[in-house]
Amino acid sequence: MTRLPTLQDELVRAAHRRERWRRLRSWRAVVAGAAIALTISGVSLAATGSRVPVISGLVGGGADTLVPKSPAAARRVSLGATVLALINRANEDVFAAQPRCRPPMPRPGRFRVTHARPSGGVLRLVRALRRPPSRADVRTRSDRALRFVGGEVYIDYVRRLAAAGGERFLVVVSHGSRHIFRPRPGCLQAQHDRLVSLLAHRGPRLRSAALTEFSHVRRGQEHNLLAATAPRDTIALIGAGGSGMTDARTLRTHGAFAAGGASGAATTLTGLLPDGVASITLDYPSSATRGRDFKPVRYRTAYRRTVRVHDNVVTAHVPRRPQDAFPPRMIWRDAHGRVIRVVREDHG
Question: DSSP secondary structure string, 1-39?
Fold first, then answer.
């Protein structure tokens, strides 16, 4: 599962490059995005009486208000926003002059199916995939949702699952390559040169911050040139509230989760778990971090809940915003109540 970087991620990263804010967990459900997500949209910087700006926008799937912790933090945030705006402008200028440099948006390919058998690693994790298809399973093979999975769908292994509360889901296995943007020769250097020209008459602090941040972006894209894109099997859980997709290794250790269907301050969390997990305990603290420079979000109390797993699926309504619905700590237990695994978020 991948996710477009949030507004918070980008502002914090640019304001202080050494601060790796919250790295998104592999068990988070997300939407696949473009290679570089540096555009700031829907941002409002409103000065308050203490000259600390309030930043409003859509963050992590829900409305959020970010308040810097101090005037010094506000200055770092403002510097980061200026840096990102300059990098965006340099990129767009190069893309306009050299259209070949513009990162292509991933497009869903033609819907394809295969009657082959998925890898044993996937089949061993979800019991429903090992049983013969029912009539209901066969009927789901024409479900339009399958067209958005990507890759080749193992059509004979589409299964209907039901959570303990009766909610219906599809589990789908597909085979394909993940989208990785690989910059064309000369494009990164052209973007760097354009950024240098835009910084010609700017102060040394801004020049240093912008060139340092661009060097990290450049390093990441150059790393993509070496990234493997070999086809692999992925497994997806599709429901009314969203979908989660992952590979066998991640499903075994973290599950595949999605957050959606937010109503007020509550969010519906859904997840696919490997065989052997009979219940999970969700642990939430009373506050959720917004990074080094922003004040955390405070909730009235900490929250803990144990939810039963049925058909490898779990659903829970949790009193958290969508961006905070993925618990920092989960405890997986078997049918006898024994702890199988404790899953913690990765702060990397």
Answer: ---PPPHHHHHHHHH-TT----PPPTTS------S----
User: Are 259 and 316 spatial neighbours (Cβ–Cβ below 8 Å)?
Assistant: no
58: which strand partners? 63
Query: Is residue 36 a contact partner of residue 181, using CB atoms and an 8 Å limit?
Result: yes
Structure tokens at 261: 């269907």
Instruction: Say what the alpha-carbon torsion angle 318, 321, 325, 327 is, to the nearest 10 degrees.
Output: -90
pTM of the predicted model, to two decimals?
0.73
Nearest-5° Cα angle at 259, 265 to 256: 150
How many Cα neighbours within 13 Å face the side chain of 81? 18
- Among candidate residues 309, 305, 329, 328, the one with its CA nearest the CA of residue 317: 305
Cα(154)–Cα(236) distance, rounded to whole angstroms?
12
Residue 5 has pLDDT above 60, yes or no: no
3-state secondary structure of 195: helix
Residue 24 contacts by C-beta under 8 Å, 6 or more apart in sequence? Answer: 3, 30
pLDDT of residue 346: 63
- With CA atoms as reference, report the closest residue to 89 among 214, 241, 234: 214
Residue 170 has which token pair? 């599809």
CA–CA gap between residue 340 and residue 338 (Å, rounded): 6
Contacts of 274 (CB under 8 A, 6+ apart): 125, 126, 251, 252, 255, 312
